Amino acid sequence: MHVKIVAADPLTIPTPALVVGCFEDGPEGQLLSRLDTALAGVISTLYRQKEFTGKRLKVKLLHTLGRLPAQRIVLVGLGKRRELDGERIRQAAGAVAQALRGAGVASSVTVLHCAAESAGMAIQEVVEGSLLGGYAFLQYRTEPKEQVDPEELTLVLAKKSEVKQAERVCREVEAVCAAACHARDMVGHPGNVATPTFLAEQASTMAARYGIRCTVLDREGIEREGMGGLLAVGAGSVQSPRFIVLEYRGGPESMRPVALVGKGVTFDSGGISLKPREGMERMKDDMAGAAAVIATLQAVAALALPVNVVGLVPAAENMPDGRAYKPGDIVKTMAGKTIEINNTDAEGRMILCDALHYASTFKPAAIIDLATLTGACLVALGTQATGLMGTDDGLKRALKKAGERTGERLWELPLWEEYGEAMKSDVADMKNAGGPHAGTITAAWFLKQFVGKAKWAHLDIAGTAWEEKGKHYLPKGATGVGVRLLVDYLRGLG
């Protein structure tokens, strides 16, 4: 979708749809009053008869029947005026984008940002919600599309002097949303397409386009590094594992990089500890952390942020053939620690532990990993928040603030040393799974053993990487979670 900015009277612009934000407090404001007059009182009648009340995320399309240059007026509810914030505007814009896609409307004009006290501050949220809400993954559909792809969005400002700044904001938002949608695409591909080799190709193609250094280790290279965890998980698949290293240098040489690590299990059958049949098809999304890391590097480079970032992706397929690692096996990791395997379905931590140890070779200022790591996180937090654990309070605070600004909220869980009791092994340094209780925390405790003294944060995105039903700016399917969050955090470092 192309986004453009104009300074004009919105009621004079010919368009298939003019989008206007409305509050539960009533159809107040000069613009709504003018619209109501032009439409012979239709808007005030809708409010009076409670057919449309401004309730949050409710969308109403009205045909103007030639009374205005706009063919339709699209009313979107924002709830109570005093409760309006950036996330509500973002969600409203996403809800409109989905409604217009369903109605076959490809282009629109919006004044939704004018509902905020500072229209200039709300432009980012309107563009984000529109671009993310208008997304659809249809690459494998061979039948003609029933819905049209959004093509153009025009934001209307009151003053010409505001246009240049608004255009700059839009170009930046477009770059970040393009990256988030790239992450969604990668996760949306099926496991027979999105293999470890596919992830490596996606990373190398992106890196070549944006001038990022990319190194890909094949099985032999992984063996030379001694990454026993990654090798063990990938042993049962005909798809060879890959280890992807992306290096973006936008800051001074003296600036220590931030290391981003993403879990890249391209399909997770559970291995010998086979998962139940129900829902296994969703396990193509077990590389959502990897997709987020690759896409974040894309956005960082597109924005030319003045920071240094390293992206690390251990990629493997977890399958149960005769060579697969087994319960009872002992695996030696790159760090030299030995792991007793008591659950081959606890594979994410096995590939991440090697990547986290590898990250220390860059002497990073911080390490942040993202992983669809535990079903326990979905039980604890549902789909509304990503689980957060880590070793540094400042890093966790910064990520939480970024989560609030972007709507990709984080919720911290404890990481007390006592949780490590569940991971003790009689025959190795530790086990790879700790039983039925506190599964999200014990998994994070396991990862903590491989980060050394680095500032580290772990984001468990098991509940937020996939949207089951579809809502506002999160259409059904992969969400691309983590990209906007990490870009916001990294922006604060420059």
Count every beta strand, where a strand is a DSSP E run of 2 or more residues. 20
Span between N and C termini? 29 Å
Rg estimate, integer Å: 24 Å
* CATH superfamily label of the largest domain: Zn peptidases
Query: For this structure, what is the CATH class of the largest domain?
Result: Alpha Beta
Shape: elongated
Beta-strand content estimate: 15-25%
Biggest sheet record: 9 strands, mixed
CATH fold descriptor of the largest domain? Aminopeptidase
Helix content: 25-40%
Number of domains: 2
User: Unreliable segments (pLDDT under 50, ≥5 consecutive)?
Assistant: none
CATH architecture of the largest domain: 3-Layer(aba) Sandwich
Mean pLDDT rating = 96
- Total helical segments: 14
Structural class: alpha/beta
What features would you describe in this structure?
The chain has 494 residues and is an alpha/beta fold. It has 2 domains: 157 residues, Leucine Aminopeptidase, subunit E, domain 1 (3-Layer(aba) Sandwich), CATH 3.40.220.10; 315 residues, Zn peptidases (Aminopeptidase, 3-Layer(aba) Sandwich). Helix content is 35%, strand content 20%. It contains 14 helices and 20 strands. The strands form 4 sheets. Strands 7, 8, 9, 10, 11, 14, 15, 16 and 18 form a 9-stranded mixed sheet that branches. A 6-stranded mixed sheet has the order 1-6-5-2-4-3, with helices on one face. The mean pLDDT is 96.
